[in-house]
Write a structure and sequence with these properties.
Two copies of one chain form a homodimer. The first copy, chain A, is an alpha/beta fold. The first copy, chain A, has three domains: 98 residues, 3-Layer(aba) Sandwich (D-Maltodextrin-Binding Protein, domain 2), CATH 3.40.190.10; 81 residues, D-Maltodextrin-Binding Protein, domain 2, CATH 3.40.190; 91 residues, 2-Layer Sandwich (Alpha-Beta Plaits). Chain A has ten helices and 14 strands. A nine-stranded mixed sheet of chain A has the order 2-1-3-10-4-14-11-13-12, sandwiched between helices. In chain A, α2 packs parallel to α3 and α8 runs antiparallel to α9. Chain A is globular and about 65 Å long. Chains A, B: GO terms for molecular function: prephenate dehydratase activity. Chains A, B: InterPro entries: ACT-like_dom_sf (IPR045865), ACT_dom (IPR002912), Chor_mutase/pphenate_deHydtase (IPR008242), Preph_deHydtase (IPR001086). Chains A, B: Pathway: Amino-acid biosynthesis; L-phenylalanine biosynthesis; phenylpyruvate from prephenate: step 1/1. Chains A, B: It catalyses: prephenate + H(+) = 3-phenylpyruvate + CO2 + H2O.
């Protein structure tokens, strides 16, 4: 049976590219959903097998939305991670391509894409109105449908192709090392064809009460075992002010004896530990020879 | 001379309410700016005295944008914090108020407001298209200007007043204890009229290199002094993958001898420490008798 992969759409976004990279067709069937909750709920209810959503430095969605839904609303473990390089293009309709810079009155894009090009936009187009869209693909579509307006979009090179737009300028993002982390999540453990040296385990740790040094004790369990942490974040539990849990990413698989010891020790301290997933991490730059597109 | 306060506009947003709460007119002059970078840059360049922007669980702007600009682009210390309760209303044009639920085809609001009402929207209006706007105030304005369409907006009660809309339903946010933390930032230390028991110091700590247990050593400096941490977050430095710094909020003023000792110890470990601000924290719920509006 062909696996179905739900991803945050529409077509032509970075999430779509990430989904195609991890799950090349025709071995899988990719299905676009309009929001992160929709993607994760589809997998939670068994409508799709695997979800692909952005989780850090996201373009088409909010990190918070992904983490919130994984923690609070669904029971879908993380089964893989993909680091994907992000470059933004400034897109224009061919009929408007001759305009002077100052003549462009509006720039459309997803809020995260606009945020990642703030310095460029403030320098080159300080007078243009910035208008938010649900996705970078939608922004390109708006430019396509409004050939008579001196408007621009921030989007992917592929979105330019799909919508017959000119690329006015490439790589307009403020930071050259821009990337987005995407996760794949699903109820079944996945056997990956690609190889990697990096494995992660993501944990949600809730402390018994808020007292000085509580987090320090938790980290001690990792530290003396030399388990490296690659991400840590305190987040509100939403039951009120001052109540936090921690999201911790470690560079160890969960079946490792040291990892199991760390979790047991943290639970013995009175903390709740939930494993959000233990999974291999891939990097698009190192995958090129493995996956032909 | 009257102080000028730059805030993330437009009028009728939660940030506007927070700015009015911390800096009541006519003692100060409030000036709306269209983006978080614009607000902070205005203060950095001396155009305004004080900035008011959201920093956590924000409605009209991204947390990441505020933290990024404070860390990377401006030199403006945090001088105060305000915790402000957030409730969302579902707004409708009077001419459309008799529509059945299923007849509403679109719901406009800021992405964060939509995110905070996800469960409600998915349950009550699963078929409606969700359309992003730059602010909740803008969403209300769109409904005001389109009386012939069966559209809704998520916004404040004040936005309903300003735009002559009906409140179809109050408190539609998914979590009852919803709040936003706002910060005031400025080049001058502020003498506050209001009193509070809570003081915070925000630190940016950059580790000398990525090795297991580095964060643990940093936290040890706080732990044995019983300095409570109220927020911790690792964030990419934007120079590439795997390079992180930490944002740490402590519940201690920076002039306290224990706080100074902790900072000296962390620097002795080879870390870079930058104090982003040391400031009193106010809570809107406990301020009502102090500030008359």
């Amino acid at each position: 049976m062909i696996e179905t992969v739900a991803y945050l759409g529409p077509q032509g976004t970075f999430t779509h590219e990430a989904a195609m990279t991890l799950f090349p067709e025709p071995a899988t069937e990719l299905v676009a959903y309009p929001s992160i909750p929709d993607v994760l709920t589809a997998v939670d209810r068994g409508v799709s097998d695997i979800a692909v959503v952005p989780v850090e430095n996201a373009i088409e969605g909010s990190v918070n939305s992904t983490l919130d839904w994984l923690v609070h609303h669904v029971d879908v473990p993380i089964i893989g991670e993909l680091v994907y390089p992000i470059t933004h293009c400034l897109l224009v309709h061919p009929l408007q391509a001759k305009c002077e810079k100052a003549e462009f009155t509006r720039i459309y894009s997803h809020p995260q894409a606009i945020a990642q090009c703030q310095l460029y936009l403030r320098k080159e187009h300080p007078g243009a109105e910035l208008v938010y869209t649900e996705s970078t693909a939608k922004a390109a579509e708006i430019i396509h449908k409004n050939p008579d307006h001196p408007w621009l979009a921030i989007g992917t090179g592929r979105a330019a192709e799909l919508n017959e737009l000119y690329i006015l300028k490439k790589e307009i993002q403020d930071h050259p090392n821009n990337y987005t982390r995407f996760i794949a999540a699903g109820k079944q453990k996945k056997v990956w064809n690609q190889s990697t040296d990096l494995f992660k385990t993501s944990l949600q740790v809730t402390l018994p009460s808020d007292y000085p040094g509580a987090l320090y004790q938790v980290l001690a369990a990792f530290s003396w075992r030399k388990i490296n942490l690659c991400h840590i974040e305190s987040r509100p539990t939403k039951t009120g002010l001052g109540n936090y849990y921690f999201l911790i990413d470690t560079e160890f698989p969960d079946e490792h004896v040291l990892m199991q010891g760390a979790v047991a020790e943290i639970e013995a301290l009175g903390c709740q530990v939930r494993i959000l997933g233990s999974y291999p991490c891939f990097n698009k730059k190192r995958m090129k020879t493995v996956i032909e597109r």
